[in-house]
Amino acid sequence: MRVFKLLILFIFFILCKTNAQYNLSFEENIKLRNFVSPGNWVLLGDNIKNKNDSISPSDGIFNLCIEPLNLSESDNIKIYNSQIIINNDIEVNEDIKFCIDIRGEILKVDSLLLRIKSFDLKFTLLEETVITYNANISEFWTKYEITQKIKSDRISKIFFEFEFYGKGSKIEFDNVEFYIDDTSFKNSYVKNDIHFMNKMKEYIYPINNYDISSISNKKLLNVLAKSKILALGENSHGCHEIQKMRSNICKFLIENENFKSIILEENYFKSFFLNEALKDTASESLLMERINGLPYWINKNSEFYELVKYLRLNGSVSLFGCDIRIFNAMYQILNLNNDELTDNTLQTNELKKYVSNLMSNSSSINIDEAKLKMKSFLPIKKLQELDNALIENVYLQSLIRVKNNNMISRDSSMAENVKLIQKYHDKILLLAHNGHISKSNYCTGNFLNTYFKDKFVNIGFTFYSGNYLAKDSESVEVYSLPELPANSFESLFSKFGYDVFLIDLKSLRENIDLYKEFSPRVLLELGASSLRNSLDFRISDLGHDFDYIIFIKEITPSKGI
Question: Is the whole-model pTM more than 0.90?
Fold first, then answer.
């Protein structure tokens, strides 16, 4: 009998080890923005409010009920939910199936989308299955399901997502069920982060006074020093502490490790004149004028101004923009051949008309013809070989981006500009948003990582609470960060007890068992705008995207100039 009891306990333990990491029910709530999201779900949407008094058909306690909030004729309810279902290696012999109970008061034009994504241990997508239902949802509880036919012995992560889009007056969700080969994993237990946090601390290095040299792992500093391209990110363009930390890292590496070039997420043509102003040690007003002349508000702050003043005093560092867009500044640079800084010459005016026509009719862009048009202007004798190459490259890549009309063209072009600069400047500091320096597919960091291998190193940044600058309309304003989802990396990081720290993801991902409990989770990603839609959060396999992350618990807005 005693042996039998031990056997039962052992089987129970094995089931717990293989079951899903996160709760699939709608019984536990967390606050997210101005409404409540159940359990560890990420609930994001526009024009909606959440009701807490809905009755679950299964247990009479709680279900997820969403109603529109002052919809206009052009508005729709938009709901996006995503849930990490399993975070352990598991074998699937036949299929994966999800079921969810739904009822609502909707219109024929409304739609519901269900999606399953299966990943292996390296976060490579194995299979994606999508089903869209139209106008089938009624006032009665109905079970909807999606099945993914898959056979694999290496599934590590499974995501279940649903999206609802329409004008319906109410929609309710309940009773998520999850089956692998007809075995139910419904309402699996929730693991507590605390059980592995002590092990995680082996990979965490507190930072004092925003000084990167204060971390205890000097070997890690050596890894940064040996890189050809060190990319420093930001998850919001408007944070004082992130700007300060990045500037301090730049200064440390310039002074101690012979880094001589900084590349910005900024337009190349406009940055050209800022770099020229660095050579003028007398005029501080010119420096300010050039910063204010940059097209992106993200660099018009006192933190960047202080870094630029430092670069001018240092005297040996060059500043480049790697972003692609044609401005009048391009024609000013081309006129350097005519010993003037105006755009009034007949030749450049003809080129400007030609480019303007292409921009207004992108389908007519002929890259070979456009390249030929530029040949008569280059090389500019007053400029170095690199600048001549960059002028042509940015000009052509700008037209390619307009022709293709996608972000991939932008990121690949930025990477090409960085590679070109590196040929002339051995060690580069790249300052750009997390989304650009990430090693995820089609990001600038992915292209650079493919080319430079281990000589490309990236450090992402994130934070947990505070205020930041963002631009949703014409003006830049201060916004407050709401409470973040319980299954976010930021929520986990906030529990370690440090105000600022670096986490060594390169080393952590080598500890396979620990890493499976750490990632993936939800990552905050603001960019230049405020927190307002589902694009501000994404499920990330953080150790795949970044080598290191610097976490700042509380942030304040960047300071304008």
Answer: no
